[in-house]
Design a protein that fits this description.
Layout (H helix, E strand, L loop, with lengths): L1 H5 L16 H9 L1 H18 L1 E5 L4 E4 L3 H10 L2 H15 L3 H17 L7 H8 L6 H14 L11 H6 L2
Antiparallel strand pairs: 1-2
Helix pairs in contact: 5-6, 5-7, 6-7, 6-8
């Protein structure tokens, strides 16, 4: 499928005919400027589809695009987008864009828990998006961020409350 070619992984996806990537292929991709430029273009294209802009290529910082309301409506209505976002997040990690993962997950946590603009993405953000983040430390920070904004806090099941309270 279209998304498999743009965001390949080392695991089987929904398309059973698609062959997972090997570690050697990933290393070759990461060494190729052309492949990485194309990957970044594909990432920006998909962000645009979801109503998000990449504002800083160095850091991976994101913000809402001008058409965010209309695009968020689409995200809320069609849950298959959540699988695609999970795939994109995993691929960002494979391709060495771990900071991009953090920014994208935080963007969705903010929109679902703080701004409450994406209620139908909230479960995927907490159950799947969060756990694609490769850095254990960054993942902990994001879980703490989610816990701080989750309502009611007592129902938060993505981390032990005693540790979350002490987290700095």
């Amino acid at each position: 499928s279209f998304l498999f070619r743009l965001f390949p992984l080392r695991e089987h996806g929904m398309n059973w005919r698609a062959r997972p990537l090997t570690c050697q292929e990933i290393q070759a991709f990461r060494k190729s400027k052309e492949v990485m430029d194309r990957f970044l273009r594909a990432y920006k294209l998909m962000l645009g589809f979801y109503g998000i802009n990449l504002v800083n290529e160095e850091t991976g910082e994101l913000q809402r695009a001008e058409n965010w309301r209309e695009r968020f409506e689409n995200l809320n209505r069609f849950s298959h987008n959540n699988l695609r976002i999970t795939r994109i997040l995993k691929c960002l990690g494979e391709m060495g864009y771990e900071d991009y993962q953090v920014h994208l997950v935080k963007f969705f946590l903010t929109e679902t828990l703080v701004e409450e603009t994406l209620p139908n993405v909230k479960r995927s953000a907490l159950d799947y998006f969060l756990f694609t983040v490769r850095s254990k430390e960054k993942r902990r920070e994001l879980i703490h961020y989610a816990w701080q904004h989750f309502k009611p806090q007592s129902s938060f099941v993505w981390g032990p409350h005693d540790k979350l309270q002490k987290y700095r």
